[in-house]
Design goal:
Length: 240
């Protein structure tokens, strides 16, 4: 079974199993079936509730065709590297460093779908023989497709966004934390994905809120703590 090694921003090596050709194929089949069923239904609904002229029917048809072709792109952007098929099969797109691909990476791998299909043999060979099981689009975009673990995927793999240009901190209060306190946050975030980890994240989130006198804006404790961690690093880098 192919493995892809991910080195996080804290030099922690995380090994994930690369998605197989069979898994990718069945994910694609599920997506095609979903689209084949959904789009005629949508077009039928449009015809049923509107008295459409011939020109409007053409416009709607063109729109649906564009949406059909762009489906992998906007689904992966909106759902963190997954389409309906990928989600059901249990695989997702990630960068080689474990971070979530940006829109440019998703766009590049989508644009090269045509090359992968036209050069099917080369595309399959790339997945089978490349170190990280990458098709041509993945090689160009610096991405790969990996199997997802059971349960919620740690947000720590999403990226250390404080290093990105134009980063805007969420909590200025994070600058008042000590290195020891931030180290505790980091260690809890890096803990393996298990039930105890989520309990620790919730407890630590409450302690951080009380200590800083703030209210978390995020829907879950993990994302809140990751933002606190990023904000602290951002202000620390500004001082340096």
């Amino acid at each position: 079974m192919a493995q892809t090694s991910i080195i996080t921003g804290q030099y922690v090596c995380i090994r994930q199993s690369a998605a197989t050709v069979v898994q990718r194929f069945f994910a694609w089949v599920i997506d095609m079936v979903a689209l084949t069923v959904a789009f005629p239904i949508l077009f039928g609904i449009a015809l049923a509730f509107n008295s459409l002229t011939d020109s409007m029917e053409v416009i709607i048809s063109v729109f649906l065709i564009i949406a059909y072709l762009c489906y992998p792109l906007y689904m992966e952007i909106l759902t963190d590297g997954q389409t309906i098929g990928k989600s059901l099969i249990g695989i997702r797109v990630v960068c080689l460093d474990g971070s979530t691909p940006n829109k440019s990476a998703y766009m590049l791998r989508w644009l090269l779908y045509g090359v992968d299909f036209m050069c099917l043999g080369i595309g399959l060979a790339a997945i089978i023989f490349s170190k990280n099981s990458q098709r041509i689009g993945d090689l160009a975009a610096g991405t790969t497709v990996v199997k997802t673990t059971k349960g919620k995927r740690p947000a720590i793999l999403n990226s250390f966004s404080f290093a990105q240009q134009g980063y805007s901190p969420h909590y200025p209060e994070a600058a008042s934390l000590s290195m020891r306190q931030v180290d505790v946050i980091g260690r809890v975030l890096f803990t393996s994905n298990n039930k105890q980890r989520w309990r620790q994240l919730h407890q630590l989130s409450s302690k951080v809120e009380n200590h800083l006198g703030i209210k978390a804006q995020e829907p879950d404790a993990e994302r809140f703590l990751l933002n606190i961690y990023n904000d602290f690093q951002y202000y620390a880098m500004k001082v340096v």
